[in-house]
Amino acid sequence: MRPPLASAPAVLAALIAISACTDTAAPRVDPPAYDPTQLSGGVIYRWPTGRTIAVFVDPTAVNAGVDLAGATAAGMAAWKTALGGSQFAFRTAAAAADADVIVHASAAPRRVGLAGCAEPPTFAGGVTFFCPARDSALTLPLLGGPGTGRVKVDIAINPAATNATNTLGALVTHELGHAIGIGGHSPNALDVMFAQPSVSAPSSRDITTLRWLVRQAIGLRL
């Protein structure tokens, strides 16, 4: 499972290519446990520090018994906890027009356009897509309105690709990791950012990598 990032490396391959605090009282920042720019061509992308990311879960084509909204809420809470509640926060959006990120079943029609970028590759489990342009991601226009919205990231999840080992929670948390800025995969199966995740919460290695990432200068702003 990958994104436009992990799931759409072809999109980010088109890219060429908060600084760490120098205050002596600032805590030491460990190096990342794995390369968080592996799938983004070396580009660090993330949301601005202090941003509250609004996430809309589209119920379209979600089969009975599949709790996509619950898995997304748990994934958001897990990543916020990973940073101790600092750097960014999440909230649930009631509509696509109010969202920064849309999560939907892969069988559902996309609620947003591609903003001129190529269609992302199809992967069995999940795809996280955004359209890079210079130093920021483009707004993905709402299809069918109202208005243009402000969506920057589109996440497609295929619940049919999950099983007892690769659970829905693991898949959704993994894709949310790509959506907040981890543009790489861990080689360690105990990390949620492993390409075929089997855990549904960030490991200490995932947390170390994210904490390093949010202290770097933004190359591509979401």
Topology:
Elements: H1 3-7, H2 9-12, E1 45-46, E2 51-57, H3 68-82, E3 88-92, E4 101-105, E5 126-129, E6 132-133, E7 136-137, E8 153-157, H4 168-180, H5 204-213, E9 220-221
Parallel strand pairs: 1-9, 2-3, 2-4, 4-8
Antiparallel strand pairs: 5-8, 6-7
Helix pairs in contact: 3-4
Question: Would you mind describing this structure in some detail?
Answer:
The chain has 222 residues and is α/β, with parallel strands linked by helices. It has one domain: Collagenase (Catalytic Domain) (3-Layer(aba) Sandwich), CATH 3.40.390.10. Helix content is 21%, strand content 15%. The chain has five helices and nine strands; from the N terminus they run H-H-E-E-H-E-E-E-E-E-E-H-H-E. It has helices at 3-7, 9-12, 68-82, 168-180, 204-213; strands at 45-46, 51-57, 88-92, 101-105, 126-129, 132-133, 136-137, 153-157, 220-221. The strands form three sheets. It has a five-stranded mixed β-sheet with strand order 3-2-4-8-5. It has a two-stranded parallel ribbon with strand order 1-9. A two-stranded antiparallel ribbon has the order 6-7. The protein starts with a helix and ends with a strand. Mean pLDDT is 87; it is low at 1-26.
